[in-house]
Amino acid sequence: MSSVIRPSRLRGLALCLALGACVPLGHAAYMEAKAGLAQVLLQRAWQRHLATGEASKPWPWADTAPIARLRVPRLGIDEIVLRGDSGRTLAFAPGWAESSARPASSGLSVISAHRDTHFAFLRELSIGDAIHLDAMHDSAAYRVASTRIVDARTERIAIGGEADGLILVTCFPFDALDANGPLRYVVRAIPQASDPAS
């Protein structure tokens, strides 16, 4: 005796499978929309910060404030950087590691962000690309000097005693399904010469 699956059960099963497949896509769309809206609010807070000279929260319950603006002209990137690099901060914008030098100052400044939102563009950076970092009273221009992949389990970014520069960090690989992997994609940028031709 052969068992026959009724068409109504097949439709129900197909609907369940389709809905199950939509959950990860819906989550990804939500994260991208949240990150995009956050940048609009952060740009406004950054403008208030520049106008008043005081830290301005992007939304009333925010526990952080804009500290810098990161631009990559070749790729059309223009993002506000928040103070701190906790997971909560990185959900909205790139974050500055407070143990590193302040953005656009002397020393080595470290900024990190998620690979699937704000730092997805790191995969498109090329050696020599210009990066501009603006802070309240300072600005700095950098050129991408190197990119590399490191294993966070065995290597740490050395901050103390390093030459002036900028480090951008995100998780790797860019298209990984597991968000908690140990690999990091690290971009090192060095100060751009003040020569007008550079």
Number of domains: 1
Q: What is the residue-mean pLDDT, rounded to a whole number?
A: 83
The oligomeric state of the chains shown is single chain
Using only CA atoms, what is the Rg?
A: 21 Å
Low-confidence stretches: none
CATH fold-level assignment:
Sortase, Chain: A
What does the overall shape look like? Answer: globular
How would you describe this structure to a colleague?
The protein has 198 residues and is of the alpha+beta class. The chain has a single domain (7-191), classed as Sortase, Chain: A (Beta Barrel). The chain is built from two helices and eight strands; from the N terminus they run αββαββββββ. It has helices at residues 7-52, 87-90, and strands at 66-72, 77-83, 95-96, 108-112, 130-134, 139-151, 165-171, 183-191. Strands 1-2-3-4-7-8-6-5 form an eight-stranded mixed barrel. The longest helix has 46 residues, at 7-52. The radius of gyration is 21 Å and the shape is globular. The termini are far apart. The model has no long low-confidence stretch (mean pLDDT 83).
